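Much of our argument rests on the idea that a fold can be written as discrete symbols. The amino acid sequence and the backbone structure tokens for this protein are reproduced below:

___
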Amino acid sequence: MRLINWRLCIVVLCLTIIGSQGPRLESPPALAQSQTGSQGRPQPIQPGSAAASVSIAGNLIMGKKDAPVTMIEFSDYQCPFCRRFFETTLPTLKAEYVETGKVRYVFRDFPLDQIHPHARKAAEAAHCAGDQGKYWEMHDLLFQNPQALRVESLKTHARSLRLNGATFDACLDRSKYAAEVQKDFDDGMAVGVRGTPSFFVGKTRSDDTIQGVFLSGALPTPIFRQAIDNALREH
């Protein structure tokens, strides 16, 4: 992850290291040109400006495909605050909104390589498990075992999920999903994501994009409820 300027550096440190937990419910940052090796400089949304449009095309979905609201998380398997969201908030949101057909949840990878050296390969491992129908099971296992994310441990996780070991190992060793993980990261950068976890919550649209509010950090559950309920009322 590139540091754009000192202000963005402070934001990233707050989100990924210090983990500021103050409620933040805001318009998403403006779209910016951002590719590997470039330095995007997104500006804050101004009143009356269009909100960022975030795509979910090609991503695995938890919940009903036609749920009226979509929540996208940009996350990192080594991020302690992403794990906090996974452990304390996601189960409640799943029970109240995903399992009741109101929200579809999409997980997108945003590995922070400079501080989390094993997050990228862990993200690839989840996709490799997905080839055998166990994406979400591997996703959960990775967050439940934050100290076991080296390649050898990822292969052990695959066996514990009763995956075909040779197939999984080949997928991981040849980095089959490296480009997909990088695309998630680049897409996140393009809409202003600079730390994890980051979320977009908005109405589901027919073109596999959403346009809604941006939330950053492992926020209290009521903040997510507010964003989701607002989007449901707009549907």
